[in-house]
Design a protein that fits this description.
This protein is α/β, with parallel strands linked by helices. It is built from 12 helices and 8 strands. Strand 7, helix 11 and strand 8 form a beta-alpha-beta unit. Helix 2 crosses helix 3 and helix 9 runs antiparallel to helix 10. The longest helix is centred in the first third of the chain and has 26 residues. The chain is globular, with a radius of gyration of 21 Å. The relative contact order is 0.10.
């Protein structure tokens, strides 16, 4: 379990709560499905190779397995392929963004074989998870070079938002998957303007849509505390380039769509509203006083 943008100490709180219940949520689990002799053989081999080489060996095996599974899914379907690129982590399928993407993909699978691609934290397994018939979520863990570049990057609020586009050349596994799917893709979709340069690189033909989850120029400031005019302007520039190249852009709210239309009035005809749904029956009411108490017990500031 890894939190991609942990600004409020969520990982620390989960770890603390887990220990209170006798759990270790961030500890890697042993593969008890293997026979004892094979676990012993792996232990000896890992000791001999060293942890870094051992992890690289496991990663290579996972990547080959993932690519083989993608080929199997490709060959099993007669539908044209749609690649839906989410440059941030939706691998656990728990966030609002992931629910929206999977919901839209669920509709698109009536016509396409949909492959949702997302970036997973370093150290997690590369996975191909079927979420419905003709629709699967591919979680691709960060390569070491990409993770190192993130750690060395200047700590400017909001700059990490552009990492996927800036350091995509350090994601060889992601490149392999896109290269494989790009040969068969007849349509494309992407969430966030920072994915557009990557889609341009691999897209050969077919329609493409931009799924705008937020007014990203405003989102940088409100959620990341970004005060760098350079970054805000860069996001607006990427948004304009994306709108200029896509066939359709879909928005969550009228407000977000109207703000984008003000910035780029020539592209207003491409903009459509696909609103978020809210499952009020499944939501549990938590009074503010109780929320404050729970937050204090877990050591959260907000």
């Amino acid at each position: 379990m890894v939190f991609q943008f942990d600004r409020v100490g969520m990982a620390l709180a989960v770890g603390r709560a887990g220990r209170l219940m006798g759990l270790c949520p961030f500890q890697e689990e042993a593969d008890v499905s293997l026979p004892a002799w094979e676990r012993g053989w792996r232990f000896v081999l890992r000791w001999w190779m060293g942890n870094r080489r051992w992890q690289a060996r496991l990663k290579r095996g996972q990547v080959h397995g993932m690519l083989d599974e993608i080929r199997r899914v490709l060959n099993a379907s007669k539908k044209p392929v749609l690649v839906y690129l989410a440059p941030y982590g939706i691998h656990n399928m728990q966030s609002g963004g992931s629910k929206r993407i999977i919901g839209i993909a669920n509709v698109l699978r009536r016509r396409y074989s949909v492959f949702i691609l997302t970036l997973s934290p370093a150290g997690t397994k590369c996975t191909v998870v079927p979420v419905a018939e003709d629709c699967c979520l591919i979680g691709i863990s960060m390569d070491d070079g990409f993770e190192k570049a993130l750690q060395e990057r200047a700590k400017v609020a909001g700059e990490g938002f552009f990492s996927f586009a800036d350091y995509f050349h350090l994601l060889p596994v992601f490149q392999s998957v896109l290269g494989l799917l790009g040969e068969r893709a007849g349509a494309w979709g992407f969430a966030s303007p920072v994915a557009w340069p990557v889609v341009q690189q691999y897209r050969k033909n077919g329609p493409v849509f931009y799924d705008a989850h937020d007014d990203y120029a405003q989102y940088l400031q409100s959620s990341f505390g970004c005060t760098e005019g350079r970054l805000i302007q860069r996001m607006i520039q990427l948004e304009g380039e994306a709108l200029g190249g896509v066939d359709a852009a879909i928005y969550c709210t009228n407000r977000d769509m109207d703000e984008a239309a003000k910035r780029f009035p020539l592209h207003r005809g491409k903009m459509f509203l696909v609103p978020n749904g809210v499952d009020t029956a499944a939501c549990r009411d938590v009074p503010p006083v109780q929320a404050d108490l729970l937050r204090t017990q877990l050591g959260l500031m907000r």
